[in-house]
Amino acid sequence: MTAPARPRIAVVDYGAGNLVSIDQALTTVGADVVIARDVDALEDADALVVPGVGAARPAMARLDAAGLTDQVRAWATGDRPFLGICLGLQLLFDASDEDGAATLGVLAGRTARLTHAPTLPHIGWNQVERIQAHPLFDGIADGADFYFVHSYAGVPEAPTDEAILATTDHGATFVSAVARGSLLGVQFHPERSGRDGLRLLANFVDLVRAA
Q1: I need a surface site. Which of 4, 34, 36, 158 has the fewest CB within 10 A?
Q2: 189 a catalytic residue
Q3: Does residue 76 sit in helix, strand or coil?
Q4: CB 111 within 8 A of CB 151
């Protein structure tokens, strides 16, 4: 079966996403975007993107209210192309220390406040250091700068978890990208990270085509 020239990517809207920017960025790099506010919007999608800013508890409440929680979890565990951005990555873990919310439980571990941080929230450009090679970062220099806005980050249960793709330092080291099969997550905002951010999203779209 020939992969679609412009894959259909569903971007989940749970009231906490930077939807306009991510929609425009994905469209620019070759995807057709549908904003998913209910389960029907996921039909015929080739990939799922969960963006977001904000806190875990209200995000999970909105997913529940829209009937999307089980669908998002099933997609993330089903080896289908998935990208979590910022809060969208944090929701993949078991729970969040920010407000005690139980989250999707796809990745073992929990979201915790950044330790030894010189400033909180962590806002601005910072280097993303690769732990392992992955096509998500093809054409992007190791240590390239990406744009962050957060005070919390996911902490895998195992410090050497094979899903850890990249880390970043802000007082202490935190996980800034994960990869497990078709499941991908980044703590930074590629849609706000200039040329390298667009390249990363273009790489994701290429992975969706290949899948």
Answers
A1: 158
A2: yes
A3: helix
A4: no
